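User: Run a structure prediction on this.
Assistant: Running it now.
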Amino acid sequence: MPEHVKKKLQEEIDLLEHELNHELPAELKKAVALGDLSENAEYHMAKQRQEFVRARLGMMKKRMAELSLMNLANIPRDRAALGSTLVVFDSTKDEEIVYKLVTSEESDVTKGMVSTTSPIGRSLMGKKVGDVTTVVTPGGTRELEVLKLTTMHDATDQRTESQA
């Protein structure tokens, strides 16, 4: 898992745990002191927030565990996968576009970083140079031809060579 993704997830987990263990108990204590809980909006809002934070915290910890189990050695060296950068020709728009396949946490379409779970990401997964794929997006159907592919391993090899 990329270190910056792990750090970002851990920061959110830490914030949620702090809120759950420190801020929300204080809010609940203050709301209880106001009296009648059946008509106490502050109490009900704090309880709802507590449920939301617990659920979000569970999701974040699960995602962290999933990403920790990711074995980078299993990512293919000869076709598009997580960490690959592709130059594609979009025949619908008649232009070349660069996409990097990333985790959903890193996704930023404005920077060309598409999640492997997005429609474009899914359609490019497993593709090689010369492959053509059709992708259905909210903006319509697009046909993409892979012109260039740099896998995560190629990028690592290039960095290692330049440091030597």
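Residues 20 and 54 are 7 Å apart (CA to CA).
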